[in-house]
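Sharing a chain and its predicted structure for anyone who wants a worked example. Both blocks are below, sequence first, tokens second.
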Amino acid sequence: MAKHSSFTVFRVFIIELPFGHEYNSTDYRKLKKNALCIRTYVSCLDTQVRNILTQNGFNLSLSPPQAIFDYPSFTHKFIINNLVYYISICSRHFIDRRILFREICKLILNRSFLNHFELERISEFFVDDFRDYSDLFGPLLKLPDATKLFKKFESFTSDVRDVDNQTDSLYESLTLNCDNVLNKDLFLICHSQVQLLAKLISFQKRLENLSINENIQGFHSLLWAVFSQKDTLKSLRLYLLYIKNCTGLHESGILLFASSFTQLTILNYHTKVTELTLHNLIPEQAIAIFNNNFNELRNFSFNYGRERFSANELLCQMAENVPESLETIEIRMGRFTADSLRKYAEGWYCKGRG
């Protein structure tokens, strides 16, 4: 008689950890709840580090050593600001929260396979211990294996309004060691920051998605960086990007300029773009998008600038040359009639998108 054995299968779910979620820094209740994860990370620290924390007034009674589950090893997306918020909430009586910040950073970076790194502005509610942005990424740069870690990054976001050049050392290190990024979302404000981020963009081998935000003047090196990615770039988002007086580009003989270089000119070199978001277009620029050689453009979103124009006329002209690949379009513009909308829809239908 055959014997039958039975066993129970337990399913273990590993959820995205709080360090990778984007939160509203003013939602204190949610931040306080997620800040409890700090206890688990402290449990994974070695004895020497735990002694240092105790000597500096940190209460370890709720974080016994040798945690059952190794959470740090499963941290793949790291929004560094979240760590600042959680530490500020859960260690209010700690003498120097920067010590705990440094040790948890080291723990995550030594054990995990990070592929997404995000640096944002620090909320005014949490600036007592981290007034200098170098306090945030300083521990990363000092790690022995920091260069190996940067090579793994696939996504990098910088939303720091750095007017004091505090982030320069981070960008310089990333430029030297980080060349496989697929997605970049950058906020630019000062000359040195733009130059360093332009180098970081140019250094990439397979950049597919690029978003550049804010109004900057006179930084044509950024354009060369965008040009350098024309073979791999699929998604380009430009927000309030105006570059004037590009005398350096006049001398190249590659492009001819008048007195300004608009965001649309960049697109002449990136016909493989599949998703495009543009702001403050004039009618001629919007029409030129449809007349360009965008054989792979699937999603197009734009709004118009302050110039007055006929929304009906623009919509009718766009209808004459709708890209065959286009699947969705979002137009934030003035009022238009049902007739012009019908003409555009018919043009899209004739292209096979109806």
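Comments welcome. The two ends are 66 Å apart (CA to CA).
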